[in-house]
Amino acid sequence: VPKGSMNRVAITGSNLMKVHREEKVKKKKEIEQEIRRRRAVDDPSSNNTDDRKDLSYQRQQLVLTAWERSRMNADVKFGKRTSLPISMQRKSLPVYAMRDELIQAVRDNQFLVIVGETGSGKTTQITQYLNEVGFGNRGIIGCTQPRRVAAVSVAQRVAGEYGCKVGEEVGYTIRFEDRTTAKTRIKYMTDGMLQTEALLDPEMSRYSAIMLDEAHERTVATDVLFALLKQAAIKRPDLKVIVTSATLDSTKFSEYFNNCPVKHIPGKTFPVDVLYSQEPQMDYLEAALECVMQIHINEGAGDILVFLTGQEEIDTCCEVLFQRVKNLGNSIGELVILPVYSALPSEVQSKIFEPTPAGSRKVVFATNIAETSITIDGIYYVVDPGFAKINTFNSRAGMEQLVISPISQAQANQRKGRAGRTGPGKCYRLYTEVAFREEMLPNTVPEIQRQNLSHTILLLKAMGINDLLHFDFMDPPPKNLLLRALEELFNLEALGDDGYLTKLGLRMSQFPTEPTLSRALLRSVTNNCSEEITTIISMLSVQGVFYRPKDKQQDADNKKVRFHHPYGDHLTLLNVYNRWQLAHCTEEFCTSNYLHYRQLRRARDVKNQLHTIFKKLRLPIVSCHGDPDIIRKTLVSGFFMNASKRDSQVGYKTISGGTTVTIHPSSSLYGKEYDYVIYHSLLLTTREYMSQVTAIDPNWLVEAAPHFYKIADDQSESRKKAKITPLHNKFSKDQNSWKLSSIRASREKV
Ligand code: CDP
Ligand code: MG
C-alpha cells in the first residue's frame, strides 16, 4: 500500500468522526423538535392547525426540489459497462447451465414453474432460449412484468443482447406505450396489458408461449392471468405457459397448474450476515441515513442498497445525504448517490446498472422494485427499514389508499438476499429481531385480497365471466371486496340490475383506464368536450407537473398561480397543457414556468394514445373550446362518488361516506370556499387530503347520477339550499338477486 494513501485514510477517519458527531448532535436536536411538532400535530386539542396543514406539504415540496437537484448533481463520472462480451455474460448466468433442461421441460409440458434467485437470468434469458429453438416462429413469446419500469428496462437489455433496436425483434408494451412491430418475437409487457389483450383474444392466439414473470408478487393482473391462461390452455394445446418466481413457494403454483413440474435454478449466492437494530427506530429515514454513513466510513468496498417506500422518501434521502457528504468534503471517499423508483425516466434509471468508478462507492435508494424486478450488481450491503407502501382498500373510508406498512418476513429475506449476489454481504435490519419474528407476517397478502377490483371485474364481465364467486382464482378475493367493486360498477351504470354488463359497461371496458375515468371519457363524446377531457385525463395520469425549487419558491408559486383556474385543479391542468402547446411544447417554457418537461411530454404521449383508442372505437375528438361548465359536468359523470360538501367545523366531508377530508395545500382551490367539490383521489398523510379538486354545482351530481343521489327534502335545511344525499336503497327493491341484496348487506356493514 503506498504510504500516501495510508495517511489519507488515517486523517480521514478522525476528521470524519468529529464532523459526524457534531452533525449527529445537531440532527438529534432537529429530530426532537420534529417529534414535538408532530405530537402537537397529532394532538387534537392543539390549535396548531397551520402546522398540520404544512407538514405533509413541506415534505412534498422538499421532494420536488430534491428530484431536480439529484438530477443536476448527477455529475457523476461513470465507467464503461462491464467489458465482458455479451455472449460471455449470458453464459455466466446460472440459468445457462439449465438451458437444455428448461427447453425440454417446456416442450414436454404445457405448464411449467421455474424458481430461481433474482439475478439468475430468468427474465432476460428464458425468452431468448425459447426463441433460439423456434418458438418465435410459431407466435410471439410474451413475458409479463408487474411493473412498467421492469418491462422497459428488461426489453432494452434483451434487445441489446439480441442485437436489435427496441421494437424490432424484441419490444415492449406498457399502458399508453406500444413499442412492438410486426417483426417482434419477444415481447415484454406489463401484466395489466396482457390482461387487456385477453379481452379481445381470450385464447391468446398471437402467442406461442407466455411467461408470467415475478409471479410471487401476486399482483391482481397476474392473479387474473393465472386463471385466464389456465382456461386458454385448454383450447390451445400448443400454448406454453411458464410461471417464474423468486421465492420457494412453488408447490402452491404447481398445484394450481394441474401439478405441473417445477424447475429450480441453483443460485450462486453467498452468506449474508443479518444485523438487527437493538431497539425500535423512531425515524427510519434518519436511521437509514446514519446506517449508510456508518457503512461508508467503516466498512470495506461494496455498494449499498437502501429500501425505502416511495419517491418522496427517496428524493429526500438523496438530497439530505448529498448535502452531508458535500459538507464532509474530501475527508471521505466519493459516494455516488442514486435513486430508483418507477416514475424515474429510463435514462436516469439505466445509470444504476453502470459499474461504480474505481475508488468510489455507490448507494442506491430504491423502492421495493429492487427486491426482485431489478437487479443491481455489486451490492454488498443492504439497509432494510422494514416498510413498503402498499395499495390497500380501506373499508372504513370505502376507498383505496396507499399506506406505508411493515413488510412480510418473506420480503425481508428477499431484501437480505440482494446483498449476497457478488460475495458475502451484510444486511442491516432497522428493526428488532423480536419485531421480525413476532410482528411481521410470514408472507405478503396478495393484492387481489386488498385492492379495488372494479377495473378487473369490468374486464372479466366483458369477457363473459359473470360468476365471479366460482371463478378459478388461486386465492379468491374476500367477498366484501368483490361486492364493493360490483357496487361501484353498478353506480357507474356499467352493470345493470341483473349484474350483467350494460352497453355502457362494455364500452367502458375498452379503455385501459379506471372505470370512473372511462365513464368520463365516454361522456365527453356526448358532451362534445373529448379534446379537453383527454387532455385532463392525460395530465392526471402523470406524476405532479409543478415543481418548486427551495431557493426560488416564491417565484415558482407566482408562476403557478398564473395557471390557476378559479374552479380548480382539473381546469388548471388543462391550462398548463394548452399553454405549453401554444408555446410549441418547448422545454424552455417548462423551465421558466417551473414545470416538469418530462411529465408534460409523457402526458402528451398518453393523450396521443387515448386519441388512438378513440379512433379505433370510432369516437370523435371534439372541443367545447374550454367551456368550464361542460368540462366539469363531464368530470362529475365519472367522479360523482368522490364528492365532498363543505362543513364549517371540519373543512369538508365526503357526501357518501361522511369522512372528514381537507383540500390539499398544493391544490389551486386551497383556501377557497366552495360548498361542493369533487376530487380525483384521497391521500392519507397526517390527515385525509383530497388531491386534484374541482368546484361543482351540486345539482350536477343528481343530474349525472340520479340513481345515486337525490335532493333531500329535509325541513331543517334552508329551503334555498338543496341538500344532496346519497341514495342508498336503489338496489334493495330487487330481492331476487343475491348480488343486490348482499351488496346492501355490505353497505350496512361498512
Ligand atoms: O429475472 P432474473 O432476476 O432471474 O434475472 P435477469 O433479470 O434476467 O437478470 C440477469 C442479469 O442480467 C442480471 O444479473 C444483470 O446483470 C443483467 N441485467 C442488466 O444488466 N440490465 C437489466 N436491465 C436487466 C438485467
Ligand atoms: Mg426477473
Task: Describe the protein.
The chain is of the alpha/beta class. The protein has 28 helices and 23 strands. It has an eight-stranded mixed beta sheet with strand order 4-3-5-2-6-7-1-8, with helices on both faces. It has a six-stranded parallel beta sheet with strand order 9-16-13-10-12-11, sandwiched between helices. The N terminus and C terminus are likely disordered. The structure holds cytidine-5'-diphosphate and magnesium ion. The site of magnesium ion (MG) has 3 residues, from helix 5.
Topology, pairings included?
Blueprint: H1 3-42, H2 49-72, H3 86-91, H4 99-108, E1 111-116, H5 122-132, H6 135-138, E2 140-145, H7 148-162, E3 170-174, E4 177-179, E5 186-190, H8 191-200, E6 207-212, H9 220-235, E7 240-245, H10 250-256, E8 262-265, E9 272-276, H11 284-298, E10 303-307, H12 311-328, E11 335-340, H13 346-349, E12 361-366, H14 369-372, E13 379-384, E14 387-394, E15 399-406, H15 409-417, E16 425-429, H16 433-439, H17 454-462, H18 479-491, H19 503-508, H20 515-526, H21 530-541, H22 553-561, H23 569-582, H24 587-593, H25 597-616, H26 628-639, E17 643-647, E18 651-654, E19 660-663, E20 676-684, E21 688-695, H27 698-704, E22 709-712, E23 723-726, H28 738-749
Parallel strand pairs: 1-7, 1-8, 2-5, 2-6, 3-5, 6-7, 9-16, 10-12, 10-13, 11-12, 13-16, 19-21
Antiparallel strand pairs: 3-4, 14-15, 17-18, 17-20, 18-19, 20-21, 22-23
Cytidine-5'-diphosphate is lined by residues 93, 116, 118-125, 153-154, 157, 353, 375, 377.
List keywords for this structure.
750 residues, alpha/beta, globular, disordered N terminus, binds cytidine-5'-diphosphate, binds magnesium ion
